Every structure is written in C-alpha cells, then in structure tokens.
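Help! Submission page says 'invalid entity' but I think these are all valid:
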Amino acid sequence: MSKTTPTRWTEFAVEALVRVAGFSAIGFVLLIFLFLLREGVPAFFEIAPGNLFGTRWYPTFDLFGTLPLILGSALITVTAIVIALPLGVATAVFVREVAPGWAREILKPMIEVLAGIPSVVLGFFGMTLIAPLVRQVFGAPTGLTAFTGALILAYMALPTLISVAEDALDAVPRSYRDAALAMGATSWQTIWRVVAPAARSGIVTAVMLGMGRAIGETMAVMMVTGNAARMPVSLDSLFRPVRTMTATIAAEMGEVAAGSTHYHALFGIGIILFVLTFVINLTAASALFQKRRRGGLR
Amino acid sequence: MQEISSRRYVVQRIGFGVLVLAALLVVLPILLVVGAIILKGIGAINWEFLTTMPRDGMKAGGIFPAIVGTLLLTLGAALAAIPFGVGGAIYLSEYARDTWLTRAIRLAIVNLAGIPSVVYGLFGLGLFVLFLRFGTSILAGSLTLAIMTLPIIISTSEEALRAVPMEFRTVSASLGGTRWQGIRNIVLPQALPGIITGVILGLLRAGGETAPILFTVAAFFLPRLPQSPFDQTMALPYHLYVISTQVPGMPLQVQYGTALALLALVLSLNVVATVIRSYFRRRRQW
C-alpha cells in the first residue's frame, strides 16, 4: 500500500511537466511577439508616419519608407505563387490520381529532398547559375531581379503546396470518383470535373501556406534579387532588382547600433512580417481544423 | 458514339500529358541543383578542406571551424528542443482533451512553424543576446534555433504517438498500469522511430538555417574552435553566404565545395530519417 503514494506523485509530476511543455508553444509565440513589440514599437514614435509609409528607404539619411520593401515582398510572393500554383497542383494531382507506383516512389523523395535543401544553397545556386541565365534570356542589365527571386521562391514553396494539395485530394471521398466513373466519365473527366472542384477549398489552403512560406523566406531572396530599395511600380519591375522586408532586416541588422532609430525600424519591419504571417497561417489553419472536425481531412 | 468517346480519350491523353510535364518541371530542376553542386563542388572536397582552418582570407585552407560550429549549434538546439518538443507531443496526444486551450496550443504551433526565419533571428537578438546578456554566442544561437525547431518536433512526434493503436493503452491499463506507465513502457517505445525521424527532420532544418544565426552567433571569420557556449562560432550556411556574397575574388570552386559540404550534411540526415522511418514501418506488427 505504501507504494501507491510515489506512483501517484509520479503521475502528477509527469502530467504537470508535459502540460508545461505543451503550453510552452503558446508561451513562445507570446514571447516572440512581446520582444518584437518591445524593440520595434519605438520606431512608430521616433519616425513620422509620413516617413514610415513613404516611398524611400535610405536609413543613412533618416528616410525609413517601408512601402518599397512591402511592395517588393508582395511582388515576389505573388509572382512565386503564380508560378508554383499550377505546377504544384498538377504535380499533386499526378502523384495522387494518375502516377503509377514507381513514379510516385521517385517523386515523393525528390520533393522531400527539395524541402530539405537549405535556403542559402538555393540562393547560391540562383546567384551563380540562374541569374546569368535570366540576364541572357530577358536581356536585363543584371540577372539579380525580382523574377529570379520569384522563380527560386516558387520552388521553395512547392513542397508545402504539393503536400497540402495532396491531402486535399486525398480527402475527396472515394464514392465521388466511383460515381463519376460509373456514369461513364473518363479518368480525366473525373479528375477535372469532380475531384479537383471537390478539393478546391483545400487547394486554397495550400496556396495560403505556400504564400506564408514565400513572404518569410530570407537568404535565397536576399542573394538573388539585387536588393535595390526602389518602388516596384513600373511594368518592367519584375526584371529589375527589388528588395524585400526580410532581406532588409538580414542585410542591415548586423551593422546598426542597438537602440538606434534604424534598429527600432528593422524590428518594426519584423512586427509587420510577424503579423502578416500570423494572419495568413491562422486563416489557413482554421480552414484545416474545420475540415478535420467534419472528418474530411485526416 | 464511337467518335465522341475517342475525342474524350484524346482530351484525357492531353490532360495526362500536361500533368506529366508539370511533374517533370518540378523534378528536373531539383536534379539540376543537386547535380550541379555535386559536380562542381566535388573537386574541392578533400581531407584537408574538411579538417583544416581557413587561410588567406578564407580563399584557401579548409572549412573545419564552420563544420564544427554547425554541429555544435545543431546539438545545442537538439538538447533544448527535444524535452519541450517530445513533452508537448505527449501532452497533446495522451493527456489533452479537445478544449479551446488545446486548440490554442495547436494554433500556436502552426504559427510558430510559419514565423519567418529572420524574425526568429530578431527575437533571438532581442531576448538572448541583449536582454539575457548571452552576447552573440553559441548559447544564444542554439536556443533561437531550438524554438524554431520546436513546431516540427512537436507535430511529427504527436503524429507518431497517435499512430500507436488505442488497444495498446487499454491493455496496459487493464493490467493495472497507470497512464504514465503505459506511455513510458508501451506507447513511447512503439512511437520512438517516428519521434526520432521527426527530431532529425527538425534538426536538419536548424542546421541549414542562416537567418536565425546571422545576429545571434555567426562569426564572419574565426579560424579557431569555440571554447565555451558563450563563444561565437563560424557556421556552414553563414560561411557559404559570406564567401559567395561578401568576399570579392573568392575562388568559385571553394564556394561550390562549401555548398556541397552543407548539402551533403543535410541530405545525409534526410536519408537517415527516411531509412529509419521505412525500416521500422516495415517491421511494425500493427
């Protein structure tokens, strides 16, 4: 009988410990946001709103216009998704619905390899091999352009996009396919008219997650986009250098004094990035959770 | 009738052709990246390159301190992230009920996974380097990487724990085992291969990251090995960034050699994870 007490105590201690570990995830998100606010909020007081949302980012002249950086990130992210969406969805459909077993056995590990390649390696590859190619093909003065960045980003977003799109296709009930085929549809008609539309909301989620990944990408983007902080508003912007929010933080934080206006401004950009990815991921996640509760997506 | 159906099959053939083309467009560039880096980098790799200090402003010599630095950072991240990650997974899979608090944890994990790597760098700088006064150090860098790795370890470990059939738990309980005894002796051992796979996948992400270590630990050029957790260190990904963008006149072969070393490190861990997973999946009785 004397043994029950220590056992019960262990049970209690273990449950308390793992509970703490579980709730630490919430703690870390709050802690990250808190420290971004602590270091970044002063920027919104030190810099006049007109300057902060102006069109020129020249920290040495106290010009902290974040607009070109925000638009730079937006341009690259949208272009990357435009490239990655058709490729990713088509590949997911191929893997789930069409491919023979051996092709799937090759494709899946290859996509895992892509997901595993460090961003700095892709950036290096983009710099040394893709950028010269872009310069030749499009006749741009430099190969370090928004388009080069978007191309690399598209491939970095692909693994996420493909795997979420695959889950969405997987969640379409078997009976839909059987019914379509039984009514005389070809496999292609079944995919195109029945399965893909049924998976549409899941594919939207895939796009959102891919976008979240693309906005936050840093090293590869910094290495291939040329980093000129200009407004990407003209038609040829895609084939000119741009600068993103992430690249600005990474390139400049090493050289600023802690506590300076420039330092606060970089943390301010961090706040913008945090809020953007938070909203995107929250939206995508709540869509996923809803589906899980309905028992659709496993 | 014959004509209509044959047209449908032509459309099908075209459709499938487009799908195959898309899959090729995804796969071929991957082969190209890996192939190009292996082919152009293999010439630089030799024993001296991997085991000596850099010389001549990093243009000659080896990348030894960068390799050691990356291994130390990854190990440090593992030590800090595994207790929280596996503990959190056990809580979510074995203890938590479906309340709004549990859902809040899940949302937090999704959001942790989505925070940009450079924002982790800012956070590490603000909390570990400046507020806690660790300075730019291996400690600060490892802890930053650990928090970044946490969501990967939690979600893969939880998946592994949930895959263990419910019967294992009920049988353990029916024999008089407590909940923790059942977890420790039955559920955890069964889920271990999956958990190890998840930990490796998280760590290879940490080892390859550059942005989080930019302001928290990475040294531009430091031709000696770190002596304590409060030292700075070189690291492979940051070293590749430095020599490919910051040092003019860097021999291209050294750059490719460094890229290959990093890629080999990460991909070999990837292969280890895949092998563990498939080996145990095949051996599994349930």
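Support: the input was valid. A stray whitespace character was the problem, and the output above is from the cleaned input. Chain B touches chain A through 91 residues (CB under 8 Å).
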